[in-house]
Amino acid sequence: MKFDIGILASQPLPVIVRQVRLAESLGFDTAWITDTHLVCRELWVTLAACAQQTSRIRLGPGITVPHTRHVSVTASAIATLHELAEGRLVLGIGTGGSAAETMGLSVAKVARVATLEGMATALRRLLAGDSIRLENGTDARLAWLEHPAAIPLYLAGSGPRMLDAAGRLGDGAIMYSGVAPWLVEAALACVAAGARARGRSPGGQPGELDVAIWAPTSIAADRALARDHVRGRVASALRHAFPVTWSPEDQAVIDQVRAAYDSYEHARATSKHRLLVTDRFVDLMALAGRPEEVREQVRAIKGVAGIGRIILLPQVPGQAFVEREQVLRLFADEVVAKL
User: Fold this and answer.
1) What is the distance in angstroms between the CA of the first residue and the CA of the last residue of the chain?
2) Residue boundaries of the structural domains of the chain
3) Which residue, among 78, 164, 168, 90, has the nearest Cα to 126 in the 3D structure?
4) What percent of the chain lies above the pLDDT cut of 90?
5) Does domain 2-338 have CATH number 3.20.20.30?
6) CA distance 54 to 18
7) CB neighbours of 54 closer than 8 A, spacing ≥ 6?
8) pLDDT tens-digit map of 72-98
């Protein structure tokens, strides 16, 4: 199993670059930078800065969305970055959440399977040097691209149909559906169904689908502090669809969080909406607690066949919360090294 880092880049750019360099030095495989332009620093500028200051770690958007950038702009951006860091790029795509909400769009409105499918197909064609048909009937291509850019495409999903599409169309799938093994298994079943339709299976080996878990994460000696630190990220996850049906009690909590969620506090550990997240959902959705507790959570996930990587998503610190650098170091030293 590989371990990645997901970064909400709301801190100054030099800080983000320093964190990615630290992740590289600690052995993390990939750094995924979120694309939510009204809440965080600009995605492609951040990725370019990270590419220039690193040499091994893979880099890419985690995730970029179609309603803020035309697919042709995304293709040109990642292909350009390919010239800086060839062989180190990944492209995570999805229908988005906070980027949509800060523009007055609802998650439900933008979460269309056809949108994800169309984006994946268009990106593959453009990066291969082929043309696509635009909405107005015009054919478009990357005229400057001299050679195809071989960049793995990861599709993100939470609900059954999105997860199925990720399995069908992605080189990898990013599941944002929880960390509890029974939730992981439910999401993976949807991804696997899509993968089988293309004659593949999850696993991450050559020719197989590389399946990742998007995991809100905080780790500290102070258990209560670590668990409170992730509540805002858990709240974000609860806005999306799930591959399971919840009990009326659980659904009531989810509905409350969705109604109260403030996307302009998407990257803040001190968000007010985090106070609505119960301990039960922290247990189900996040890697959080003392090092030995997080280590056991990871062991449980490793017991689910077909999971290739875990993407840690430490919330941006604030107040007295844990710094992202501390989360990375503790995870590397107390979890990965002792598994």
Assistant:
1) 11
2) 2-338
3) 78
4) 89
5) yes
6) 10
7) 20, 21, 24, 85, 88
8) 999 999 999 999 999 999 999 998 778
